[in-house]
Every structure is written in C-alpha cells, then in structure tokens.
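We both want to read discrete structure tokens more fluently, so let's practise on a single case. Would you supply a protein for us yourself, any chain you care to pick? Would you write everything just below, so we can both look at the same thing?
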Amino acid sequence: MTTQHTACILCSRNCGLLVDIDEQGKFGKIRGDEQHPLSKGYICQKAARLAHYQHNNDRLTHPLKRMADGSFEQVSWDDALNDIAARLLAIRQKHGGKAFATAGGGGQGNHLGGAYLAQMRAAMKSRFNYNSLGQEKTGDFWVNGRMFGKQTCHTTEDVEHADYVLFIGCNPFQSHGIPNARDTLKDIRKNPNRTMVVIDPRRTETAKQADIHLQLKPSTDAFLMSAMLAIIIKEGLYDREFIAKHCHGFDQVEKELRNIPIAEYVARADVPLEMVEKVARDFATAKSACVRIDLGIQHTLNTTLNGYLEKLLYLITGNFGIKGGNNLHSSLIPVLGHTDERNPRIQRSVYHKMFPIAGIFPPNILPDEILLAGEERIRAIIVDSSNPLLTWPDTPALEKAFQSLELLVVVDVAMTETARLAHYVLPAASQFEKWEFTGFNLEFPKNGFHLRHPLFAPL
C-alpha cells in the first residue's frame, strides 16, 4: 500500500486528495489532503467514488475499427493511426479545412485533450471547435465580451466572504462549484449576520438551508431579475459613485429598468411581491453581496438575457471588484479565447454563417453543418472525451449526421453511444493514468494550479 497526493476531477473545484493505492494497483482509502493550499482537507461524496470511474468494467483496452456490417474488430495502434491520418490528409487535400471539426476536448479535470485537439485543428487548417461549453456557457461569454471588453473576462463570486449571497439556478450543496461547498454553506447558515437566498423552481438541498427561497415558475428568471433591478432603481438603492467611476451607458439601462412593470413581472414569476422587494432591498444595502449562477439559468429560456441581468445585479449595486462581491479572476492556463463576430475575417460556419464565441461553435448547429452545407460540409470529426449523442441537443439529428460522415473517430475510455457510430474508437488513458491538469483554476482571491502526476500505469 502506498499513499499519493492527487486531486478530484469530478467538479470544477479539483479538491486535493490523499489516496491509498493497494497492491493490485487500485484505489483504496480516499480522503482530503489537509496540505492542499486551497481545499485544505475538504472532501465530498464525489471524490469518495473515484474508484468507480477508474476501475470500471466498461473501460476500453484496444483500438477498434467498425466493419461494414456495423461490428467492431480489434486492430493495432499502428494500423488505426496510419489509416486515420491518411484519410484525414485526403479529406484536407480535396476539401480543405472546412471539412474537418472537433467535438469535445478533454473531460472534467482532463484538459490536455483540449490542447491536443487544438493542434489537430491547426494541422487540418480548421477552426471548427464544438464542445459542451457551446451549449452551456457561450451566452454568458458573449455578454462578458460586450460588458467587460473581452470574452476571456470571466467572473467569479467571493461567496466565502459575502454578507449576502444570491444563488440563482444552482445547487452547490450537490454540484459544488464554490470552494469547500458544504462547509461554506454551513458557515453562512450558522452566521446570523449573513444571508443566503436561493432562486430556484425546485426546493433543492441548498434551498432547504437558505434564509429565503424564491421558488419561481420555471423559465421566468429574466422576469424576476428584471423586477429586482427595477426595484433597486426605483428606490434609489444603486451605487451612484461606483457607476459614475467605472461604468458607461448607465442612463440607457436606467431608462429601461424604470419602465419595467414590477408587479406584472413578479406575478409572471409567481412569487410574493413583498418577498422580492425585501430581497432586492437587502441585497442592494448589504455591506458586501455576490451572485452565484450556473446552468439553471443557462439551460433555459432567455439565457443570454439572464447572463446580462445577473451581472447588472452586482454591477449597479457596486458589488464588483470588492471582497465578498463578484470579481474577475486570473488563471494560469486560460480555457477560453476571444472572438469578435464583428470582425469581417472571422471564420463562420458554412450553413448557418454562425460566428464562434470564445473560439467555440454551438452544438445545436452541427447536424446542419454536416447534412445541409453542400460541398463545403463537414466530412470528418474527431470526438474526444465527449458523448454528443447523449448530452447534446437533438439526438436523432446528430445520429443521422454522424452516420453520414466520411470519417468519425472517437477517443474515450468507454464505448459510448457516439462511439458506436465511429469508424475508429481509440481507448484513452484515464485522468489518473497520465500527467494531467485542469483549466478550471478560476478561484478568487487565491488562485491555484494543480499538475497531477499519474497514479496508475495506462490500462
């Protein structure tokens, strides 16, 4: 039995771990690493289940080639890689870079795959990068670009030090996303001088601990946040000094917010008006307040507008760039780029003429770019650490599109739904069988970067 330092890879926090490796080369006891500079020994139920992901009977062990009858046969690495390379070269030479795209690019805490795919696109002279961020987060990234100047200006929330916290469309008790989530939530709940408000249609585990739960009607987030902003403006609770010093265009925003029919919008959200007024007033007058959002308002109606409104909440109240507020963070390995759709030289998709956001195209358009783009259609795709047929919109359309490709290569640890359609399936090393890092080092004010050494020999 040996003990190793590593990190969990099952959410964006990447908490430090001490793990025992037994004589059979498998995970034994897993516990928090008290020496880790950020998580300081914290551990949740996700990390405790790492053995399930590492030692799974569904792991692939050999390259597989799909035969004409749909079955798969084991082939050598040399045969697989040589044939894939030859077919990619032929497609590039005949049809150019527009015929190639990548999908995915590094699983959770397994981000070197994304760097490798970027080099594949460069070699193929393509810029078509599709991944799950393109359906989850690009509306938010686009808003960042327009509000802060660059799509790389990603914001984070200082929940640990805030007097007043708004959780909108997220459940950190289960999904985490904030440092040492359950301990942090407990600290807020036990402190009479701090307030936790959850805005969510469900009575989540986090909502059960909150001081106030605004249980709004699904998909009405934009109405509720607009009403809260209108209350803050109407009652003069916005931070005039901060706005005058740091913001442009407030007069237009103020005019729009003063026209919001507050009672009507709150009625659409189906929550008590007096409670919304209390939350708006208390948030605006708190010594420090922050907003934590996630997929709940990014996988629903009005997602881009939601991203704008939640940022207005902390901007017009001056809770930006302060302890306990929302902040821009730094990172050692940026996972996002910046692309400006107003640039006439930007490479757009062929059929939809869609521009990338932060270098990413939306998965929703991918089937059309394969099936409807004529001679300039996408003909070859490499999928890495992703399962589009299961996790991206419109499975029947994706299935039809992927079946029409001249070459589909899937790199993964298991035979997924997408892999079953591939011409080649290449087994990947797991997150703990190679050197790896995560690009989700988005903490504030302390920022950490954890390079993980391999714990096991590649399967």
In short: The first helix runs from residue 50 to 54. The mean pLDDT is 94. The two ends are 19 Å apart (CA to CA).
